[in-house]
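Lab notebook, design round three. We kept the backbone fixed and only want residue identities now. Task for the bench partner: fill in a sequence for the structure below.
Input C-alpha cells:
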C-alpha cells in the first residue's frame, strides 16, 4: 500500500526510484517508468534495474539446500557470460539472496565460501571491508555489506573515506586478509 504513493511522489529522486525497482511488482514499475519527470536515460536506468532483478530471480528455489544450489547455478550462468558485476551483488543483497552474495564474494576474492560466511558471522567491519576490497568491490558496496549482511553495529561501521575510498590502509587490509587465511 505504501509503494504506489512513493512511486507517484512529486520530486522522487532517481536513486529512490531505482531502489524501488529492486522489489516492486510490475504495476509499480510501470508507474515509475511512466513518470514525466525522468528523462529517457533515467527511465532506462530504472528499467534496467527491474530487468536485472527479473533475470536474477529466474530459477529461484525455496529451501536452504535448494537456495545454495540455485545461487551456484545463477553464479555459473553469469560467469559463463562474463557478466558478474557489483550490480548483481547489490541486486542479490537487496533481494536477500545471501547464498548468491557469499558465492560471488568467494569467487571474486578467491576465498573459500565458508571463510566468507565466517567473516560475515563475525559482525566485524574490518574483515568485511578487507574481503570486499579483495573482491574488487567499491567501498560503497562494502558499506552496504557491513550493514545488511554483516549486521555490524552502527557505531562500528567503517564509512567510505571522501565518499568513495576505502578507509583502511593497504597494510591494514593485508593484515585482515592474512588473518582470514590463518
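Proposed sequence:
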Amino acid at each position: 500500500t505504501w509503494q504506489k504513493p512513493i512511486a507517484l511522489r512529486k520530486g522522487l529522486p532517481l536513486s529512490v526510484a531505482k531502489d524501488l525497482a529492486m522489489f516492486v511488482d510490475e504495476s509499480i514499475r510501470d508507474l515509475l517508468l511512466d513518470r514525466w519527470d525522468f528523462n529517457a536515460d533515467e527511465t532506462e536506468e530504472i528499467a534496467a534495474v527491474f530487468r536485472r532483478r527479473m533475470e536474477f530471480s529466474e530459477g529461484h528455489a525455496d529451501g536452504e539446500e535448494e537456495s545454495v544450489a540455485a545461487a551456484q547455478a545463477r553464479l555459473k550462468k553469469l560467469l559463463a557470460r562474463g557478466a558478474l558485476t557489483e550490480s548483481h551483488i547489490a541486486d542479490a543483497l537487496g533481494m536477500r539472496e545471501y547464498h548468491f552474495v557469499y558465492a560471488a564474494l568467494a569467487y571474486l576474492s578467491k576465498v573459500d565460501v565458508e571463510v566468507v560466511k565466517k567473516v560475515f558471522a563475525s559482525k566485524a567491519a574490518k574483515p568485511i571491508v578487507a574481503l570486499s576490497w579483495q573482491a574488487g568491490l567499491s567501498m560503497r558496496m562494502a558499506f552496504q555489506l557491513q550493514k545488511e549482511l554483516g549486521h555490524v553495529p552502527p557505531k562500528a561501521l567503517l564509512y567510505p573515506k571522501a565518499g568513495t575510498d576505502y578507509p583502511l590502509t593497504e597494510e591494514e587490509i593485508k593484515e585482515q586478509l592474512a588473518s582470514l587465511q590463518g
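Keep this in mind before ordering anything: The chain has a mean pLDDT of 86.
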